[in-house]
Amino acid sequence: MAEKITLSAIKADVGGFVGHSSMHPALMEKATESLESVKNQGLIIDFCVTHCGDDLELIMTHEKGTESGEIHKLAWDIFVECTEVAKELKLYGAGQDLLSDAFSGNIKGMGPGCAEMEILERKSEPIIIFMADKTSPGAWNYPLYKIFADPFNTAGLVIDPSMHEGFIFEVLDVFQNREISFKCPEELYDLLILIGATEHYIIKNIYRKTDNEIAATSSTQKLNLLAGKYVGKDDPVMIIRCQSGFPALGEVIEPFSFPHMVAGWMRGSHHGPIMPVSFEDAHPSRFDGPPRVIAAAFQLSNGRLIGPQDLFCDPSFDNSRKMALDAADYLRRHGPFEPHRLPLDEMEYTTFPAVMEKLKERFKKLN
Ligand code: F6R
Ligand code: MG
Ligand code: MG
Fold first, then answer.
1. 74 and 162, same structural domain?
2. Mean of pLDDT values over 119-139
3. Which of 98, 120, 142 finishes a domain?
4. Continuous H helices in the chain
């Protein structure tokens, strides 16, 4: 009987080059060297190391299932080793996403982001891994809705009998650490009232309704309250299966032709358009942005990762990039004003409590 394959995409920012903009090749080399040796020992089947901006992305296939302590420890140890390299080169923010001193069984909640799915590989298994920088997992709500629920995006919802029943959306309430599932299309409006609030209700998994097969998963997780601040919400990844009863590859990337507005950008405190870019252009610069997304596509072959294809390295996304840059110009002119700047309680950096403390005696109560 065929074994189930697990796909794990685990990422962390362990040091930027230069500033928070991109990745030094030495980190990618270190990660590749370590994964190569683990692959030779047989713990993983295959891997691909890449980066989006300052985030190191480890894409791995194995047979250990999701949330495997062995695989999570492997990723953690590689991030620690790469942090050593980053420290030696004095790269910026070395080890910034490793929030704990020691690994404690599961990488979730320790800083790195993690998207995983366990599947029985089909006769042909096309998958896309999306990776973004300078934004949060809520950035996936809009494209996931378009891909799996909007017939104006996904023709298959209307004309492919194997998708016509729709999909089930599993949504995480990141503040209260609880989840809820919606059957779509019948519960679309209930779904939208929640997931339109992209920093609060975030899509975690999507399943095909007819057989409960996993279709998509994201690195969404509950937010950790550390030293009075919510942390670990940054720079998400997601995995989507394509074709034969799932949305076609072209339906999966179509939503990114509209560079929708996401939270993140400079100091994690601004709204900006998410720009689809080639691997080569995945280095946010202007005002530390605008936020970027890359799409790495693979065919799985008994767990081997055949690829990646760089899907946004394509002139058909040129207009989307132009639209993103126009939106970036427009938003930037607002400077410190909302809606460019995030609401007071959503900014990652803030002076608000300190300023209010300083001013508290100067507020005069009005009748
Ligand atoms: C946003 C981001 C950057 C930094 C900014 C300040 O996610 O990574 O915009 O927030 O460059 O960085 P520090 O405070 O580390 O100098
Ligand atoms: Mg960084
Ligand atoms: Mg980053």
1. no
2. 97
3. 120
4. 25-41, 69-88, 141-149, 156-159, 188-195, 249-253, 318-332, 352-359
